[in-house]
Amino acid sequence: MSKQSEALLEENLIKQLVENQYERVVIKDDKELEQNLKKQLEKHNKTTITDTEFKRILNHLNKGNVFEKAKILRDKFVLPCDDGTTKYIEFLDSEHWCQNLFQVTSQVTVDGKYKNRYDVTLLINGLPLCQIELKRRGLELKEAFNQTLRYKRHSYSANNALFNYIQLFVISNGVNTKYYANSKLESMNFKQTFFWADKNNKNITNLEEFTNSFLERCHLSKMICKYIVLAEVPKILMVLRPYQFWAVEAIIERVRDTNKNGYIWHTTGSGKTLTSFKTAQILMKLPNVYKVVFVVDRKDLDYQTTKEFNSFSDGSVDGTDNTKALVKQFSDDTKLIVTTIQKLNTAISKKQYLTQMEKIKDKHIVFIFDECHRSQFGETHLSITRFFEKNQMIGFTGTPIFVDNATGNKLGKRTTKELFDDCLHKYVITDAINDDNVLKFSVEYVGRYKEKVGSATNIDIEVESIDTKELLESQERLEKIVDYILANHARKTHSREFTAMMCVSSVDMLIKYYEAFKAKEHNLKIATIFSYSANEEDKDANGTVELDDADGSFVDEEHINVHSREKLDEFIIDYNKMFGSKFSTKDSQSFYNYYNDISKKVKNKEVDILLVVNMFLTGFDSKTLNTLYVDKNLKYHGLIQAFSRTNRILNEQKSQGNIICFRNLKKSTDDAIALFSNKDAKEIILMEPYEDYVITFNEKYELLKAIAPTVDSVNDLVDEEEKLEFVKAFRELLRIKNVLGGFSDFKWSDLKMSEQEFEDYMSKYLDMKPTVTPNSEKVSILNDVDFELELIHKDEINVTYILKLLAQYKDSENEETRTKQRENITNLLNNNPQLRSKRELIERFINDNLLKIDNSDDIEQEFEKFWDEEKEKAFEELCVEENLDNVEVKKVIDTYVYDERKPLANDVAKSLKTKNTYLERKKIIPRVLDKIIGFVDKFYER
Predict the structure, then answer these.
(1) Average pLDDT of the chain, as a whole number
(2) 128 strand-pairing partners
(3) How many CA atoms lie within 13 A of 448 on its CB side?
(4) CA 372, CA 401: separation in Å to the nearest integer?
(5) What is the pTM of this model?
(6) According to the 3-state scheme, what is the secondary structure of 363-415?
(7) For 758-773, how does the pLDDT look when each residue is reduced to its tens digit (9 = 90+)?
């Protein structure tokens, strides 16, 4: 049977949409799109619009970028009519989303920087709000995603720019189908594309089923009207994933139709803040709800949540700095309050606030508890439920408390279900890993294990049955662990591309570790933070701790451990020297400021390893953190919470969360996985052993050899389909090598392929990446293939590094050594993505200038001179070729290089000497921009 063609896939989709009550319309280009829009707006608004009035509407619609257009779409427009009156024009009915008008069209052609023809467009009230791009079966879905990015660059903004009103994209190859929000180009990432799923998290991947569920008219309109968040701070559109949608729907139903409580179990890292924000946003509009109160259990989370909520909708939350401000918010017209459980308890228990609070105790208030596995198990929870007579409690947790992991207090052992009633929606860690929403864990147990003879992880420290404090805390054991970390840190973090955390059993142990790191020779930036309250210790010699006791940046000022405080101040002095800051522990606010700063530094990759006892092991999100070193006994929800600091999705290079255990936590890990997913989930959550990846690599190597038996045979691949097969085959090897490189045991001799052969094939792979040819009409199929260059990112190899090699090459007197050195330099230039744009110039310098230099110490100076001359020449050529103003171009380049901000079209327009028509500028500006970016990539280190 032949493969289903893209045209047949498209025709079948349109037929299905027509059966689902979409009106089919034929629209050839953007002029016809405008004519149809006029008719649909008249119909939707039950009015007539004259041609001049419609021009005013088009002018209004033509304002702003994608984010601003999303706001225009949701607002009514006051239209000045020809007769001097005004009337409201509605573009989208967000309250009664089913009452909009739905149409489908296909193959609309728009002539922008290139001429593009779009597959299937869904129109709501005449505006293109959903764009569907199809690829025939067998092609990668990512190619359809990259095609939408290409259209964004080349034509969506052309002419009337109505295609910038797209809210959602759908991509499909018939078998797999995903959706994602439109946004600014630089924020769009294939990792932010989602499969739709039913209530039980079963993915709906087939296009036909997806069309019946997701593209059903009312559902699509509801997703656009209710479940897209216009995030104010980053200025992007965010659409909810299916499990977030089902959770919010379940909560709304619960609050609207009952007075029962309920909780949501969504695994750590799955985006609970966005879910809870959208929940709060919809609940506060329900007529029977007086207020929505979002409750966190720590001061730092109060600040963090307020910041995040306001980033979704600016000014939606006014942070409550003190209890007085909180009490005021309860009595004024504030609909959404974010507060800590401690402040809330003070508001309902202290005499001075009771008069005001008594007035609202009989109102219907919905309390949303974040991380409801932690602090809702004491008397505070009881006080809140007793005081507010019509309270409704909704909990969110990634790790619920069950009978197995319940710990007692004076009120007894209680589970999440006992406190919050039914679980309304569940999305566990296995679901998230299957959906690529979080990463797997690679757990390595380092120490003298019986079964690990001959492994690099078999270092001489006891782990199998350590049960004495003396052995655990011995200086000799600690020194070996520090040495192991220093030897393996670069490997674990991809040459410090990522950061790490280390958690230890007590403050005393942390102090020893910090001082051991400080005494060693290394260039890692080590920082630490811990509470100096007297009770910041673990419960026994094994270091088992319930992370419920980790209270963020809170310090109990009445019970201070003086020794701990002095040590922390000493370590903060080191931190201040490292970063030029002035932090201390003189009071709780100063400590809180330090806490916030260290949090930012870790997220910005300015700290290599953060040493902690309990802090930061829950509620701290940093996508650039990929490694956790563990010398502490963890179990159940504490273990999953701590491990989950490493598993946030970022890019292809971050393939897993690395957990390096210096204690035998194998049984605890297995028990935690069984409790929070199911007993058979180990293979989904944990990475396979090193040996399995070696086998897979060797199998993929054989597949590569079947396509290109030798490096030179890659040159014989003429057909684009053949080249595509080679690119995909080598990319698979790159991905597996990326994972293998993180194992302490990795060595090339385990593989069938030598390192040199890998580098040679990589050179051919990189040569196939298409370069931009601005005037080309034909688009190569390789344009939409992702070459995943981040997997070959080598930051440490730059021009300076090459110059050092050139000096060695020049000074070498042995001909064989010189040949090898020259070969090495050529390979580096070929294989390093950052140097490829500079390759031709560096090689010219080697061939024409290097041997004329007498002293190798002068190489750098001579190279700089050569480089500056070439840069000046290229700059002049660029300005002459495109008729540009030198001064303005220099400004554009400076902004790009020093502010690291991509130049705006307006900045480039200022550099044009001749005044061009609008349409001419549309073509010239992107071309000039491409050349400026090429110039910077070539001549500047970035």
Answers:
(1) 84
(2) 123
(3) 9
(4) 9
(5) 0.74
(6) CEEEEEECCCCCCCCCHHHHHHHHHCCEEEEEEEECCCCCCCCCCCECCECCC
(7) 988 888 888 776 643 3
